[in-house]
Amino acid sequence: MGPRVPRTPGFQARPRGVLLTVCLISLVTIWLCRLPKMCLYGEGIAHLQPQSAPQALNRIDLSKADSPFVSWPLQRVCEETTTWTSGVVFVCDNNSGGIGNIRNYILTCLRYAIDAGATGVVLPQITTRSEKDLSNIRMGRQGFDYFFDEVHFRQGLQTACPQITLYNSTDDIPHAPVPFKAEQITPRDFGRRGGCDNRELNKHTGRFAQQFWAHINRTAEEYKRPPPSINHPRIIRFNWGVQWDWPVFRDGPEFVATFGGLLRFRQDILDLGEKTAAHMRQFALAHGGTRSFAGFHLRTESDALSRWPKFDEQSGAYLEKASGMTFKAAYLATGNKTEAQKLTAAASERHGIAVVTKHQLLAGHPEELAALEALTWDQQALIDFVVLLECDYFFGVSPSSFSMNVALKRHLWAEGLYTRPWRIGGDGDGRSWLVGKYEHYWEDWLFMFESLWP
Length: 454
Known about the structure:
single chain; Rossmann fold; Alternative oxidase; GDP-Fuc_O-FucTrfase; fucose metabolism
């Protein structure tokens, strides 16, 4: 046996005191580390650290039209790109259609730009449609603020991805060719598709950067061009139709739930949408004794495709389910005035539901009605978008990208950053339901659910 340590007064007490102090300090440190850490970068830009995500769910409702942009998931993705090349610039303006298509096109183009290591992106422009012929979706281009809040977009992108310079226009790209011309590519062409349907999502996104740079190097050698640089830029514009291309959950649920937050509607549209929603609450109270109301999206305008559910299928399903849920008031979003009247009459006569549109709601508010009528057809749809996010239950139609956007944005309410994918073809998520055909993956456009950022 070794020598015995002599007992001295206070020998046992001091270690216990030290041990207790260490334990208390450790507990306090752990508790402090678990508190949400949120720093705001400008108005509406929130940088939440990953470890604070569960607590943040109680603070930020990502299903709101004006929810702040949570930047850390995009920052994480940008940091995963290890090589950024000066002179590689993406132009994301070859978009068209309504808000659902245009919004997803811009986000998809930006996502590819990040993987390519592009150090430049031109502020996207919006391709407008004809007011007289809704199927004519290739009219002139308008600025980014035709739909979106430019300051919010700039701040969010700079906060999360400072590697990218945002140019105001193609005229601002250093040493761009005159007259201007961009190289047009289709990202999925870089992968071996193996005979898949042309609408297949790009299953080769993980190899896009490698294949993109193989294309850049091959064409540089073929056409005797120097490597990309500020003095010798390679300017990339996607061909039309890439908006349903990227399998969004590749980047994790946190990225899916937040990436779309970059594209927040401009403030005057948000304000008018919120006022319209408030008027709708009053309408519901007057017609049903409660402020609760259903939201309907009737997609039967002249540009609706023949395979989509027709008026009877949409309206019949909406009214039957809404009546079963005891709604007495409903907000109707549609551009078809004739069929709006048909649905309104059927709702009142057969189900006792009072239905109203945005124009009818604002008829007693001249200034707000004037603001609404100053907007174009597609801009007015943004007012519907805001109100439908606020309704107590949403009824839409698949495969309308507008309905899908609203339903998936509302889907973020329950689980926030950790929201799991929408269950395609089911009974909804308790907040929204989409009528439609769910039999064929391609013909029924179900692939859109897997490539949409809410």
